[in-house]
Amino acid sequence: MQPIRTSYLLLGALSLTALTSCSLHRYQGPDDQLYIGVKSIDVVGKAQGGYLGDALAEAETKLSYAPNGSILGSNSLRFPFPLVSPYLYMSLSSHPNWLTKGLRRLTSRPVWMRDVSPTLRAKVAQQALRDRGYLSAQVRASIHPLPSDSLQAKVSYEITPGALYLLDSVSYFPPVPIRKDRFFRHERLSYLHRGGPFSMQALQADRDIATAFLREHGYYYLKSDYITYEADTLQKPGHVALRTHLAPETPPEALRQWRIGDIQLRLLPDDNERLGSLATDSVGLGSGLKLYYTDKTLVRPRMLASRIRMTPQAIYKSSEEASTLAALNNLGAFSSVEFYFSKREETKDNASADSTTSDSLRRSFPSVMDSIGDLDLMVLLRPSRPWSAYIGAAMMKKSNNYMGPGVSLSLDRNNLFGGGERLSANLYGSYEWQTGRSPSDGSSVSINSYQLGGDLSLVFPTILFPSMLDSYYKYPTSTSFKLGAQAINHARYYTLRSLSLSMEYSFQPSARWSHRLVPLSLSYTQLARTTARFDKLLEENPALGLSLRNQFIPKFAYYFTYTHQPEQSPHFLQLFGEVSEAGNVVNAVESLSGRPYGETKKLFGVPFAEFVKAALDMRYSWRIDRNQTIATRLATGAIYAYGNATTAPYIEQFYVGGANSIRAFTVRSIGPGRFRTEDENAYSFMDRVGEFKFEANLEYRGRLFGDCHAAVFLDAGNVWLLRPDASRPGAALSEAGSLPRLLDQIAVGTGAGLRYDLSFLVVRFDVGIGLHLPYATERRGWYNIPRFKDAIGYHLAIGYPF
Fold first, then answer.
1. Coil, helix or strand at residue 759
2. Is residue 234 classed exposed, middle or buried when 0-12, 13-18 and 19+ CB atoms within 10 A define those classes?
3. Does position 170 have pLDDT exceeding 70, yes or no?
4. Cα distance between residue 694 and residue 634, in whole Å
5. Has residue 564 got a pLDDT over 80?
6. Whole-prediction pTM value?
7. CA-based Rg of the chain, rounded to a whole angstrom?
8. At what angle do helices 200-216 and 318-330 cross, to 10 degrees?
9. How far apart are CA 59 and CA 46, in angstroms?
10. Beta-strand pair 138-146/373-383
11. Interatomic CA distance for residues 77 and 65, integer angstroms
12. Tell me: the pLDDT tens digits for 668-718?
C-alpha cells in the first residue's frame, strides 16, 4: 500500500508543478504585457449632487474588464491557475489541425494589455461621467507590473468626478400649433427645468418626449436628431444656460403635419421564386383601404380591416401606427409586417411654397400650418408557415424540492380558419422525486411520482363575444378554449386523474393593466387509486379526504395585473389579483329545479365544489442606485367553502415555503396555524395547506462583482383554516385567541443568496435559515428551532423569487 500511496503523491506533485509552470513568456512580444485584472478603482474628492452613485457605477462598468480565469465576470478575482487555459490555447495554435482546433474551443485566448487599452478605457469612462453632468470629471489609468514578473501587470484607475453642473436657465421652443386653438408647449412636458441636473440623459429624454408628442399629432417626419441644444457654461460657474434649437439640416417636411392617404395591404407570395411577381387580385376593405393578393387572401378581409387602426384622411398618429403593427403581428398569420410611408405628389405651387419658407421653418415651427401633406401607406405582409412543432427535454429542479427529467411535445396549426386562430396540441410527462427535512426534528422525507398529461387548445386573436370589447389590439387580445387531461401517480400512495375544460378571455387595454376573465372552467378530479397507507392517512384527516374526493369544480374567475413604474423613477409597483367562485351558477339552476339548498347537489352524478376565493400579491421595489435594490412582497388570500362541502378542493388551497416563498422551509413544511402532526412522514406535507394565507418578504440585492450579485432576505408567513378542524388542532384563525398569539404563529426565516446574471436568465442559489416555527417545540423562546442544522433550506432556482 505504501508504494501506491507514494506514487499518488508524486503524481499530484508533478501535476501541480505542471500547472504552475505554465508560462506565456515564449508567446509574448517585446511590448506585450499580460493583463491580470484591476488593482483598484479609486474616487478622489467629494463630488456634489445626488446622482453620483449611478454615474460612478456606469464609469466603473466602462473600466471593468475580466482577465483570464475570472470568477463570474469579476475584473479582479480569479480562479487558481488562471493561465492554464491561455497557455493551452497558445500551445495548440502552433499545431493547426482538426483536433487542435476543436480543443481550442475549450480554452481561452490570453488577455493582453493592448486588448484592454486602459488609457482609451479611462477616456470612455470620463466621457460617461461628463454625459451625466460631471463636466469637469477626470479619469486616469496607471499600469502596475508585478514585482516578480514585469510581463504581467494590473491596472488602477483614479476618478475625480468634480461637481455636478446644474441648469441655470432653459430656453424652450415657441408654441407649436397641433390643431385649431391648441399648441404644443415645450416647457410643460420638458424634463429640463432650472435647478435640475444637466446631463445627456436629460437632454435625450427631452428630445424623445418632444418628438413623441409632435409625431402623435401629425409630424411624421420629425426625428429627435433634429432637436439640438446649445449649452453655455461661462455665464455662471458650475451652471449651464441651455437653449433649444432645430438642427440646420432639418428638412421642411419634418415641420409640417401629415395625414393618412390611401392604405394598400400587399400579401407577398409564400414562394420566394414568386416574390417579384405582381398581385393578380384585390379587394376593397373600406374607404381608401385595399388588399392586393394572389390566389387567396390568407386572412379574412374583414379581420384584416379591423386590425387597421389608422383612418384615411385623418391626421397621422404614431400610436395608431404602433397599434396597427402590433395588431397585425398578433394575428400570428404573418412572419413579418413592414410599413412603407410615401409622400403623395403635390402641386407645383405647394412645392414652391415649401422651398421659400424653409429658412423660417428652421428657426421655429409656426407658419407651416397652412398646408397639410398626404402620406400613402403600403403594408407588406409575409405569410408565416402554417405548421410548427416543438420538442423539449430537461432535468427539472422545482421550487417544491421536486427534481427529475421531463419531456414535452407540441404541435401548432396557425391561422386555422383564416382569422389568425391557433390550434395547439401538447403532450408532456415527467418523473420526479422530492427530498427534504422536517424543520423541527430533522426527519427526512422522500417522495417519487410521475406525471402524464396533454391538452388541446384553440386560441382566437380577438374577443369573440361580446364583440364590443374587441378593441384592444396594441397588446395581445385573445379568446381561448382548452381541453386537458392529466394523471399524477405518487408511488405507494395514490393516483389522481383530472379532466378540464375552460374558456378564457385575455385583454390588455394599456401598458399598465392586463386582464384575464374565465367565464367557464369545469374540471373533474378523480382519486383513481389509493393504498392502505394512504387510506390510513385519510382516516386520520377527514378534511384531507374531502378535498381530494371525486368532484367537479365549475369555476368562474377574474385575474388582473397592474404595473406602475414612472419614467426615470427608482420605484416599481406591481399587483396581481384573483377573484373566483365555484358552484354558484350550477347551484342556482339546481335551486330553480326545486332541490333543497342543504341537500348535496351533483353534476352528472358527482358532487361539485362550492367556494369563493380572493387573493392579492403586491410587489414593490426601490432601486437605490445602479448596483443596489430593495425588493418587497406582500401576499394574502382567502378561500371559503360552503354548500356541498366545508373544505375547498386541495388544488385551490394555499401553502407557503419553498424557493419563492419562505426560503428557510421547504414547500408545505409548516402550517396551518400552529398545527403540528404527531408523526412526521413523507406525506405530512399534505396536511400543510390552508384557507387563509399571509406572507411578507423583504430582500436587499446588491452587486458583488462582475455579473455576480448577492442578496440578504427576511421571509415571514403562514396559512390558517377558516373553520376549526378536530383532526388539526390549532390550525384555525379563531383558535389563536388574540393578536399576539396570532403573530406568534407566523413562521420567520432569514438567509442570503447569490445570483448570477446571464442577461437572458438569472441563476439563483439561496440559503434560508429558520428563526421561528409557528408551533411549540422543546426549545423555549421566540427562537424555537431545536437544531440549527435542521433549519437550513437550500434552493437552486431560475429567476428572482419576486
1. coil
2. exposed
3. yes
4. 8
5. yes
6. 0.79
7. 34
8. 80
9. 16
10. unpaired
11. 11
12. 788 899 988 766 554 556 678 899 999 999 999 998 887 889 999 999 999
Beta pairing, strands 494-507 & 176-179: unpaired
List Cα–Cα distances, 433 to 115, 447, 448, in angstroms: 49, 5, 4
Task: Cell numbers for 299, please give them.
Answer: 386572412
Question: In terms of pLDDT, which residue wins out, 796 or 547?
Answer: 796
The amino acid present at 42, given as its one-letter code, is D
What pLDDT score was predicted for residue 352? 41
Q: Which residues pair with 228 in a beta bridge?
A: 245
Q: Which residue from 406, 417, 409 is spatially nearest to 388, judged by alpha carbons? A: 409
CA distance 473 to 467: 13
pLDDT of residue 472: 63
Question: Does position 34 have pLDDT exceeding 80, yes or no?
Answer: yes
DSSP codes, 764-798: EEEEEEEEE-SS--SS-SS---S-GGGGEEEEEEE
Distances (CA, A) of 458 to 420, 425, 452: 11, 9, 21
User: Thinking of the domain 258-383, which architecture would CATH place it in?
Assistant: Roll (3.10)
Q: Which listed CATH number (3.40.50.720, 3.40.50.2300, 2.40.160.50, 3.20.20.210) goes with 387-798? A: 2.40.160.50
DSSP 107-121: S----BHHHH-HHHH
DSSP state of 27: G
- Long-range Cβ contacts of 731-740 (<8 Å, 24+ apart): 731/671, 731/672, 731/673, 731/674, 731/675, 731/690, 732/672, 732/673, 733/673, 733/692, 735/673, 736/673
The CA–CA distances, whole Å, from 266 to 291, 304, 328, 424 equal 6, 12, 13, 28
CB 802 within 8 A of CB 619: yes
Cell of 163: 461637481
Could you tell me if 268 and 277 are in contact, meaning their C-beta atoms sit under 8 angstroms apart? no
Mean pLDDT of 536-562: 81
Of 389, 420, 464, residue with least CA distance to 326: 420
Nearest to 691 by CA among 666, 725, 660, 715: 725
Q: In whole numbers, what is the pLDDT of the chain averaged over residues?
A: 83
Q: pLDDT tens for residues 634-670?
A: 999 999 988 777 888 888 899 898 888 998 888 778 8
- On the 0-12 / 13-18 / 19+ scale of CB atoms within 10 A, 342 is exposed
pLDDT at res. 322? 92
Return the closest-CA partner of residue 602 out of 556, 659, 644, 562.
644
CA distance 474 to 317: 14
Is residue 672 within 8 Å of residue 688, measured between CB atoms?
yes
Q: Which of 473, 469, 433 is nearest to 451 (CA)?
A: 433
Q: Parallel, antiparallel, or unpaired: how do β-strands 387-397 and 258-267 relate?
A: unpaired
Residue 757 pLDDT: 85
Taking the C-alpha atoms of residue 730 and residue 744, their distance in angstroms, rounded to an integer, is 12
Reduced 3-state DSSP string for 669-734: CCCCCCCCCCCCCCCHHHHCCECEEEEEEEEEEEEEECCEEEEEEEEEEEEEECCCCCCCCCCEHH
Of the candidate ranges 343-347, 655-659, 723-727, 738-742, the one whose mean pLDDT is the lowest: 343-347
Q: Is 225 exposed, middle or buried (0-12, 13-18, 19+ CB in 10 A)?
A: exposed
pLDDT at 15 > cutoff 50: no
